[in-house]
Design a protein that fits this description.
The protein has 317 residues and is an alpha+beta fold. Among the domains are: 78 residues, no CATH class; 96 residues, no CATH class; 42 residues, no CATH class. It is 35% helix and 13% strand. The strands form three sheets. Strands 5, 6, 7, 8 and 9 form a five-stranded antiparallel beta sheet that branches. Strands 3-4-10 form a three-stranded mixed beta sheet. Strands 1-2 form a two-stranded antiparallel sheet. Helix 3 packs parallel to helix 6. About 7% of the residues have low confidence.
Length: 317
């Protein structure tokens, strides 16, 4: 196979395409939407894709290069095989270091056997003219998309990301602006959006129209002012309003402290307008001929009768 993909259109003007070219463009991912409403990508996207395909010599039918739409944004992607092919065609590619994984950034292993995903992966690419390999590191936190493949084989997916980073680092002229599917998985996954806290919806609340300070001045006690504060809606509460109500309450408390104490209420048994002690004047005083309670005459005990009084005259006879 030659390095030039001659089957693709030479121009981004769709009016000049043949039916075969239209089908190839659609196979390359430049058409999206439901089956009954397929839409071609914007003209700049089509032109950029055709340029990338000609420059890299990658085959869209072999899925070495293709276009994809994510959330309304279009981009050109390459497979890891396509990136390796581009590096090989430069004639300066000298191989790679084995992919390594780590869980702590200190100990790196060539085979990942742990059931838990690795924290990072690294790959080095050798290029002609460089003494040391160009090493790139990919972390799980940065690239994990949470999709089925990332759940099933996280170490493999992370290793591909590290390899793509190293290839682009070693061959920037040939691979600049091109990203692999594994790298871009995280760009279209809802998991990333779910990490952003949902913003609460703002609801317009009409003001109550009440003058809270004016109402506070009509209250007679601080307890009534406290109850009034409880009626203030949350969206109308403020530090200024609270300070104003407190000032009214303090003034009310000071006024109450300055007033003389109110007189004690009269006793319920005192007649209205009667002088103090008049209720005792009405008490009935028993007369001498009346027997007071407890003073009833008690018969004398036997043998203790009183002697008859002595009358005048001598009854001797």
């Amino acid at each position: 196979m030659t390095g030039t993909v001659v089957a693709l259109p030479a121009t981004g003007d769709s009016s000049q395409w043949t039916e075969t070219e239209k089908a190839l463009v659609e196979a390359a991912g430049l058409v999206s939407g439901p089956a009954n409403n397929r839409q071609l990508a914007p003209r700049p996207v089509v032109e950029a894709f055709l340029l990338h395909a000609r420059r890299t010599g990658l085959d869209p039918i072999a899925r070495q290069i293709y276009c994809i739409e994510r959330k309304g944004r279009w981009g050109t992607q390459v497979s890891i095989d396509g990136a390796r092919l581009v590096a090989e065609r430069t004639k300066e590619y000298r191989g790679q270091t084995p992919t390594q994984w780590t869980n702590d950034g200190v100990t790196w292993v060539d085979v990942w056997l742990d059931s838990k995903p690795p924290k990072a992966a690294r790959v080095g690419v050798y290029r002609e003219g460089f003494v040391e390999p160009l090493v790139a590191v990919a972390t799980m936190d940065a690239y994990n998309a949470g999709g089925p493949m990332w759940t099933k084989m996280p170490a493999l997916m992370l290793g591909k990301c590290a390899e793509m980073l190293a290839l682009r680092k070693a061959f920037p002229q040939d691979l600049s602006g091109l990203y692999s599917t594994e790298e871009m998985d995280q760009a279209g996954q809802p998991k990333q959006a779910a990490q952003v806290p949902a913003q609460p919806q703002l609801v317009e609340v009409e003001p109550s129209g009440r003058d809270w300070v004016a109402e506070a001045r009509t209250k007679a006690t601080t307890a009534e002012i406290n109850a009034l504060w409880g009626e203030v809606p949350g969206h109308e509460r403020s530090a200024e309003l609270l300070a104003s109500l407190r000032a009214v309450g303090m003034a009310l408390a000071q006024q109450a402290a300055a007033e003389p104490p109110s007189p004690e209420p009269e006793k319920p048994w005192a007649a209205q307008g009667a002088p103090a002690g008049a209720e005792w004047v009405a008490a009935t005083i028993p007369q001498d001929e009346e027997v007071r309670p407890g003073e009833e005459e008690t018969p004398p005990l036997e043998g203790m009768e009183p002697e008859a009084p002595v009358t005048g005259g001598d009854d001797r006879g």
